[in-house]
């Protein structure tokens, strides 16, 4: 489980104008909430926060204005430029169980057919400071018709499945057979008919 230390500053100005000013200073407006406490309005260094958020379910240890552990729960980015506009952080405690989404990845190659992955992440419950980075599925040698459900996933110790165990994660399907497109088939039929008529006329 990744843990990143980031220095937080308190902020008392709100609204779009105040948020733009914070971003011009290369910082990101943040709200820290949870455990029935009043939401705390903070600003975090933009570059450090952006790097931290590259890791799924990164645990952020805030210092400075507050000294808390938090998980990202809402990230807003500029739709065009991609920079961080706002982040919601959920206050967590060591030993506390939290529900998160972890990525599902595959290793190996199927024996035949095509691997169709339906689920790229799965909902689990884990201790806040021991959230797995993801879960791997070994597909080596799987044949057509094989499937893996959420209940088949081998989760790390201390992690429990929250998603429906019957949810399909992936399956192996047969490769599609090449069929002539309807227009092409009609064109071929027309050419064949014209050829037959020309042969009859020649006779």
TrEMBL record:
<dbReference type="Pfam" id="PF14693">
    <property type="entry name" value="Ribosomal_TL5_C"/>
</dbReference>
<dbReference type="InterPro" id="IPR020057">
    <property type="entry name" value="Ribosomal_bL25_b-dom"/>
</dbReference>
<keyword id="KW-0699">rRNA-binding</keyword>
<dbReference type="InterPro" id="IPR001021">
    <property type="entry name" value="Ribosomal_bL25_long"/>
</dbReference>
<dbReference type="Pfam" id="PF01386">
    <property type="entry name" value="Ribosomal_L25p"/>
</dbReference>
<dbReference type="InterPro" id="IPR029751">
    <property type="entry name" value="Ribosomal_L25_dom"/>
</dbReference>
<dbReference type="InterPro" id="IPR037121">
    <property type="entry name" value="Ribosomal_bL25_C"/>
</dbReference>
<comment type="subunit">
    <text>Part of the 50S ribosomal subunit; part of the 5S rRNA/L5/L18/L25 subcomplex. Contacts the 5S rRNA. Binds to the 5S rRNA independently of L5 and L18.</text>
</comment>
<comment type="similarity">
    <text>Belongs to the bacterial ribosomal protein bL25 family. CTC subfamily.</text>
</comment>
<keyword id="KW-0687">Ribonucleoprotein</keyword>
<dbReference type="GO" id="GO:0005840">
    <property type="term" value="C:ribosome"/>
</dbReference>
<comment type="function">
    <text>This is one of the proteins that binds to the 5S RNA in the ribosome where it forms part of the central protuberance.</text>
</comment>
<feature type="domain" description="Large ribosomal subunit protein bL25 beta">
    <location>
        <begin position="97"/>
        <end position="175"/>
    </location>
</feature>
<dbReference type="InterPro" id="IPR020056">
    <property type="entry name" value="Rbsml_bL25/Gln-tRNA_synth_N"/>
</dbReference>
<keyword id="KW-0694">RNA-binding</keyword>
<protein>
    <recommendedName>
        <fullName>Large ribosomal subunit protein bL25</fullName>
    </recommendedName>
</protein>
<feature type="domain" description="Large ribosomal subunit protein bL25 L25">
    <location>
        <begin position="6"/>
        <end position="89"/>
    </location>
</feature>
<dbReference type="InterPro" id="IPR011035">
    <property type="entry name" value="Ribosomal_bL25/Gln-tRNA_synth"/>
</dbReference>
<keyword id="KW-0689">Ribosomal protein</keyword>
<dbReference type="InterPro" id="IPR020930">
    <property type="entry name" value="Ribosomal_uL5_bac-type"/>
</dbReference>
<feature type="region of interest" description="Disordered">
    <location>
        <begin position="175"/>
        <end position="203"/>
    </location>
</feature>
<feature type="compositionally biased region" description="Acidic residues">
    <location>
        <begin position="180"/>
        <end position="194"/>
    </location>
</feature>
